[in-house]
Each structure stands twice: as C-alpha cells, then as structure tokens.
Amino acid sequence: MRSSELFLALTSLFALAHSSEEFGRPKRNLEPLEPWKVTKMSTFSPSGRPGSSPLAHTWANITSSGSIAAGHGASFESSDANCTAEWVWASEVPYNHTYECTTTTAVAPSQSSSSTWTIEILEVTNSNYFSPTENFDVKFTLTSNVTVDGNEYYKVLVGTQHFEVGKNMRGTCGGSGLCSWALRDENNPVLVQPTIVACEGTC
Ligand SMILES: *[C@@H]1O[C@H](CO)[C@@H](O)[C@H](O)[C@H]1NC(C)=O
Ligand SMILES: *[C@@H]1O[C@H](CO)[C@@H](O)[C@H](O)[C@H]1NC(C)=O
Ligand SMILES: *[C@@H]1O[C@H](CO)[C@@H](O)[C@H](O)[C@H]1NC(C)=O
Ligand SMILES: *[C@@H]1O[C@H](CO)[C@@H](O)[C@H](O)[C@H]1NC(C)=O
Q: What residue's CA is closest to ligand 2, atom 4?
C-alpha cells in the first residue's frame, strides 16, 4: 500500500469511527417506525409583475401515526403539522433554511411534553434541473420531549422525500408567469420513512 493510500484508508477509518460515535444509537428495542404521511405539498411561484407579491411559498402538511415509547412508561403520541416556507422568488433561495411548523398533537401538550416539526427544502443534486418549487427534496424533522419524574426523554426523527412536477406533483402556470403545483391525487398521501437521529430514553 502506497503511503497516500494508507493515509486515505486511515482517514476514512477515522471518519467512520467518528461518525458512528457521533450518530451512534443505543441498541434498538423499539418497534419499526411507522411511515409519516404527507397529505399536502403545494408550491407557488409569483409572476414577478410589478405590483404583485414577490413571495414564493411552499405549504406542507405531515402526520405521524401511532405512539412511540419515550421511556419510563411514557410515550410520544401522534402529531400533525402545517408548515409554510416563504421567500422572495427573484432574489432568494429557500434551501438549507429551517422553517418551523405549526404542530398539533393528539394529546394536548402539557408543560412536561412537547413535539415540534420543522421542514427544510433541499436542493436536488442528481439533476440538471433545479427548482425549489418544481423539483426538490424536503427534510422533515420531528422533535419530541417528555419529562417524567424529573428525567427528560426525547427523540429526534428525520425523514426526507423527493417532490417533482410530472412525478408526484402536478399543476399549472398562468399566462402572467405564476405557477401553482400540488400533490397528484393518486400520490396522496406521500409516505416518508423516519429514522432516529437522536434519542434519550427507550431507543
Ligand atoms: C393541512 O393542515 C391544515 C391545518 O391543520 C388543515 O386545515 C388542512 O385541512 C390540511 N390539509 C390537508 C390536505 O391535509
Ligand atoms: C398553517 O399554519 C400557518 C402558520 O404557520 C397559519 O398561518 C395557517 O393559517 C395555518 N393553516 C391552516 C389551514 O390552519
Ligand atoms: C445546502 O447544504 C448543502 C450541504 O451542506 C450544500 O452542499 C449546499 O451548497 C447548500 N446550499 C445552499 C444553497 O446553501
Ligand atoms: C428537546 O430535546 C432536545 C434534545 O435534547 C433539546 O435540544 C430541546 O431543547 C428539547 N426541547 C424542549 C422543548 O425541551
């Protein structure tokens, strides 16, 4: 092995060890996670005509179903979120910005528990055609916390899905240049498989 190869091998070994330490999970004793359901994914890009709103939008709804063991007999209940991303079409991109969603939980939130959803719009990298409203990925993050007998348990779940006009979205563009897209009925709901990225409690 030449020294450069050895160096590369050692570097990747180190990266592997480092990442498995950083993202390492305690052993799993959870049921497999149920997929989330995206029931709404609508986008709008403005015409850019003087006097009209310069804002582009993404509206998303997502639901988690079933309760998940949190720890010490407590569980995280299902929740729904209504998310909005908004940016100036002509001069901004929405990528890599975390947008907070409005979350509704099946069980009324108390002081000791909370669930919050966020979305991030990700740039599609394996395509020549980039559009934050027509061809994009969305990363959904659900953070749930509960405090039981002074112990805090939490889970951070992440799932990413691809959305694309002509695949799971359809819509129209007006003569003025504005465009509106939404999930195709036959693709609704779109499923998103969550994975656990951080956990304390039953993991
Ligand atoms: C999206 O969420 C909002 C707010 O919870 C709700 O009023 C609306 O009916 C939902 N739409 C769909 C298609 O799920
Ligand atoms: C969804 O949440 C936004 C705030 O993020 C709110 O302005 C909007 O009215 C909500 N939509 C519905 C249908 O509840
Ligand atoms: C978003 O983040 C990814 C990964 O960190 C990076 O490759 C990409 O350039 C970023 N895009 C923008 C528009 O900041
Ligand atoms: C939930 O737990 C996460 C991870 O420890 C923490 O970053 C976050 O602040 C907690 N949120 C609440 C509302 O306690």
A: 102
Give me the residue label for tokens 């480092």.
18
Residue closest by Cα to atom 11 of ligand 4 = 145
Q: Using CA atoms, how far apart are residues 127 and 147, in angstroms rounded to an integer?
A: 44
| Residue whose C-alpha is closest to residue 139's, from 121, 154, 152, 155 | 121
pLDDT tens-digit map of 186-198 = 999 999 999 999 9
Ligand 4 midpoint to CA 118 (Å): 13
Which residue minimizes the CA distance to atom 2 of ligand 3? 96
* d(CA 80, ligand 1 centre) in Å: 9
Q: What is the 3-state secondary structure (H, E, C) of 71-91?
A: ECCEEECCEEEEEEEEEECCC
Residue pair 123/130 in contact (Cβ under 8 Å)? The answer is yes
Ligand 4: which of 143, 152, 155 to mutate, most ligand atoms within 8 Å of CB? 143
- Distance CA(118)–CA(50), nearest Å, equals 32
Q: What is the mean pLDDT of the chain?
A: 85
